[in-house]
User: What shape does this take?
Amino acid sequence: MPRTGGDAPTRTARRAAMKPQMNEATMFNARTLAACAFGVALLTPGLGAQDLLPSRRVGEPRVAQYRNFALKSDLATVSTSAGVQASDAKMIHERPAVLQDLDWRPSRWVTGSTVASTDPVDQLVFSFYNDQLYRVVVDYARDRTEGMTDADMIEAIAAAYGAPSKPASRAARAVSGIEAESGTVVARWGGADHSVVLYRESTYGAGFRLIVTEPQLDRLAQRATADAVRLDERDAPRVELERQKKERDDTRATAEKARVVNKAGFRP
Assistant: This one.
């Protein structure tokens, strides 16, 4: 049957009507692919790890760890797994308990190659209480989570830690400084031996942060931090006097050494 000139406007209108649908589908597919990529990166070996979590039988409890970093591990074990020096750890407090942080930025390249890594992690901070890992703070690279929604992140992390728990009231437990500054709580996971909380940061170009903690050690660390601050404030006047005395003694010792050398060589 011959085509009439009236068909062209009809086809044009039909194609125009399909464009918004195609754009929406493209955006949906891009976000879906990003979520899938994040989930794959989260669940596959990375950061020198064997697996995110060891394989387990159906019904077994979730393991208290992040990737191959088990909570309660000592500094030497964690630094070896991460491929960094234990001496890089920063001393936060020495009394009444030893509190240390180990900062680490993983490589943006696949080990032994020039291929860019797809790992979404930008930085990790491992925190230790008396040489026991009690907290892991994971900051995700914003370019690796760009466009991902809260639901996308929850879906990806749930593959490792199961379905999120119901939101808990902040009044139910003490909140540490790092938690208070991390932004808005998106979802929580965990049990008696571990807690996993996903945050959306509230700063410009907001990204995501995951905090994994061992609850008992975390409480001890918070208490030790508060006690350390009180001790520092109590001892501040004495410490300042000792600092000033040492400074005067050092100045006198330096002057005396210079005096001996200059006196021996002085000629009027």
Q: What stands out?
A: The longest helix spans residues 215-265. The CA atoms of residues 21 and 227 lie 60 Å apart. The radius of gyration is 28 Å.
